[in-house]
Amino acid sequence: MSEILQNLWYGFGVALQPVNLLLAFVGAFVGTMIGVLPGIGPVSGIALLIPLIIGLHPASAMIMLTAVYYGTMYGGSTTSILMNVPGEASSVATTFDGYQMALQGRAGPALAIAAVGSFIAGTLSIVALMLFSVPLARYALAFGPAENFALMVLGLASVSTLAGESLVKALLATCFGLMLATVGTDLVTGTDRYTFGIPQLLDGIDLVTVAVGLFAVSEVMLVVNEIAIRPRLLALQRIWLSARDFAEAFWAIIRGTVVGFYIGILPAAGATIASFLSYGLEKRLARDPSTFGKGDIRGVAAPEAANNAAAVGNMIPMLTLGLPGSSTTAVMMGALLILNVLPGPTLFQKHPDVVWGLIASMYVSNTVLLVMNLPLVGLFVQILRTPERYLYPLIMAVCVVGVYVVGRSQVDLTLMVALGAVGYYMRKHDYPLGPAILGLVLGDRLEQTMRQALIISNGDPTTFVRRPISAVILALAVVSLAAPALITRYRGWRQRAGGRVSRPAPATDPRGASSSTWMARCWTRTG
Amino acid sequence: MPHARTRTGFQHGLRDDHEPGIVAVPHSRARAAAPDGVAHAAMPPARRGPPVTSDRLAALVIFVVAVLYVREATTFRGATVADVVGPSAYPALVGSLVAVLAAIQFVRPRGGADGQPFWQQHGRPVLLAASLFAYTRALEPLGFVVSTFLYLAGSHLWLGERSPIRAVLLAAALTTVLWVVFDRALGLALPAGVLGR
Q1: Strands (E), A149-225
Q2: CA gap B137, A345 in Å, rounded
Q3: What are the b/e assignments for A447-470, b being 16+ CB within 10 Å?
């Protein structure tokens, strides 16, 4: 314990250096803007910042990206409450009661509880992160290539299971990312693969290009059809929170934190799922569930706490195992790889400044956002009121600059537009985008670990199932792929047998659509 | 943008079967339920629309790409003594998996056919992508300032700005801001193009 406190003290030393503090401020501000704006979400937003952080120290870079990530969550909840526009998928659950509260003239308390809830959840789960990640990293140090390969297979499998309405489409999206990752020079043999004689492709397809093309360009292509729609903006009064409101929401925040954190740790299940689950939990625990969907403050507090806790929980597999659990953490991991920092168990030994600086900077970003965002909420809302005919071209121009400066190549830009078209098709036809970006980030290491494991075993492929840890992890991957189909079949069998269908009451939202489908749609949409 | 609301093609564009982007959430409540229902009953898959669904077409295209991908993989040469696997095995594995998945999707497609004529539904997105492509092609030869100005001004106009003067002035202002931020402040050295340096 004292070791952890010592490390944390050291981390604060890193995070509170003036440069890093400034970066946290800038990141929080930019992140909130990203969270508010349509078109640029956390994935493409963080990707666009990658060219700017290349020259920075890895610790500073991660501090900034963490602040951006946090900022997007705050920005998303702001627009959810004030305009019923969830900037990110993880704040969809906040709209259910948040917007209703705003309609009733209680936008102030709603915004305040979202901020306070996020702050409490963020702080508590950072403590949990510290307690969990060190032992986990120590355990994972014993992992060889076979185990790491199995772990990545599990990560990709569970992301595909949860990502969309169709498992086949989700797996196709995953493989699309894996295929993109194979472009470029093979690291082991130096062979060019899928470069088609284009020298710019020798280094592979850049993460920034893919993230911006698949997420930002396609999103703008999608929303450009809806330019006529203007969300109604509610007048914003003073932001305040009465003691009664806080008392009412307090346990919802604590429960949301616990749910969010545990969901966040699981590979693949991210902030979006956590926010829906905790909303559903609050509704079931409530004495009078009918108040939910009509402006219940617990309906804002719980999902907001959960999505922040999950964002922190998500960092655990990323930092300790090198296995990102969401598309956003995948991009952050991509940024670390670009900075020559390999996430995984060795990170804690080789780059303690990155790990502990990042953990400390989570506290810092939380505080920065709490003090910065509430006064600035009006400004951010103004940004959203900019007519789309000015906003979208500007977003596109920023994307072009961001992609161009990475490699200074025309090829990257052409790829960006092409991937935008592909992403548009995928969004239109319910192929989830998240698995594609995860596949791209993990692809190289997936292949390397597979080859290393086979080299160690002299080409014997049974090594993956002979080593016990690897076998267990691979079995989990198979289970996670098969589970949804089996559950559906079991239910169908129960139904035919005349038995009462004991469906675990889905966390319904006021729209009547069950939350799991909502999650799926959201994931498809914003990853 | 009141005039945009009255444009009929636009209104049709909104009646799209899929969940629109985040901007439209408040308006999509009613429609969100319909595809959800389908999705929930989707085991066995709901078959609606003609047998040639876009999912089937996509499955065919993906299958062909996967086959080409695997075929290309078999041409990779260059093994080292230690590397028993070589550069071909992994891509071949991934490509084969994709081919199998595409075959499954062909047999059991999920989506229906697109309801509306292509251009009504995808006209604006395609135009957006085309203009973006033109912009990226012009970036190096014309330079950042000229190409961005042209792209922004043109986009303002086709996205519904009725005053050409405002479109041009705003484009000039935004281009200047972008140039100052990225080129001067952040030192990213954007292409100068025809303006030289």
Answers
A1: 184-185, 192-193
A2: 44
A3: bbbbbbbbbebeeeeebbeebebb
A396 vs A205: CA distance, rounded Å:
20
Q: A495 to chain B nearest CA, in Å?
A: 14
Rounded Cα distance, A327 and A201, in Å = 23
Q: Cβ B20–A389 below 8 Å, yes or no?
A: no
pLDDT at A107 over 50: yes
For the entire predicted model, the pTM comes to 0.81
**How high is the pLDDT of residue A233?**
58
Q: How far apart are CA A325 and CA A346, in angstroms?
A: 19
Structure tokens at A278: 């905790």
Taking a C-beta distance cutoff of 8 angstroms, is the pair A221, B155 a contact? Answer: no
- B-facing residues of A in 264-303 (CB < 8 A) are none
- By C-alpha distance, which of B52, B44, B53 is closest to B17? B53
What lies within 8 Å, CB to CB, of A462 at 6+ separation is none
Give yes or no for a cis peptide into A231 (omega within 30° of 0).
no
**Between chains, do B20 and A222 touch, taking CB under 8 Å as contact?**
yes
For A370, the token pair is 């709490």
Cβ contacts (< 8 Å) between B95 and chain A: which residues? 179
- Residue matched to tokens 């990475």: A406
CA neighbours within 13 Å on the CB side: how many for A503?
13
B66 Cα distance to chain centroid: 21
CA B102-B106-B112 angle, 5° bins: 120
Residue A193 φ/ψ, nearest 5 degrees: -125, 130
Q: Is B77 left (phi over 0), alpha (psi -120 to 50) or beta?
A: beta
Could you tell me if B51 and A114 are in contact, meaning their C-beta atoms sit under 8 angstroms apart? Answer: no
Length of chain A: 527
pLDDT digits (tens, 9 = 90+) for A308-358: 888 888 888 888 888 887 788 888 888 888 888 888 888 888 888 888 888
Q: What is the rounded CA–CA span in Å between residue B143 and residue B193?
A: 3
Q: Using 50, 70 and 90 to split pLDDT, how confident is the model at A515?
A: very low
CB A341 within 8 A of CB A347: yes
Closest CA to A187 of A205, A209, A174, A202: A202
CB contact under 8 A, B23 and A220: no
**Using an 8 Å Cβ cutoff, are A318 and A269 in contact?**
no
Instruction: Choose among B177, B178, B176, B194: nearest CA to A404.
Output: B178
B100 touches chain A (CB under 8 A): no
C-alpha atoms less than 13 angstroms from C-alpha of A22 in its C-beta half-sphere: 3
Contact (CB, 8 A) for A217 and A224: no
Q: Across the A/B interface, how many CB contacts are shorter than 8 Å?
A: 250
- Determine the 3-state secondary structure of A511 from DSSP: coil
The answer to whether the Cα torsion of A134, A139, A140, A141 is positive or negative is positive
Indicate if ipTM > 0.85. Answer: no
Q: CB-CB: which of A168, A225, A413 is closest to B104?
A: A168
Whether the CB of B163 is below 8 Å from some CB of chain A: the reply is no
> How far A35 CA lies from chain B's nearest CA (Å)?
12
Do A315 and A129 contact (CB within 8 A), yes or no?
yes
Task: Locate A1 and state its tokens.
Answer: 């314990």
E strand or H helix at A174, and its extent? helix A167-182
CA of A465 to nearest chain B CA: how many angstroms apart? 18
Which pair of tokens denotes residue A513? 């659509």
Distance (Å, whole) CA B23 – CA A221 = 12
Above 50 in pLDDT, residue B33? Answer: no
Nearest in space to A36 (alpha carbons), one of A233, A207, A208: A233
Distance set, CA B135 to CA A51, A395, B161 (Å): 21, 13, 19
CB A527 within 8 A of CB A41: yes
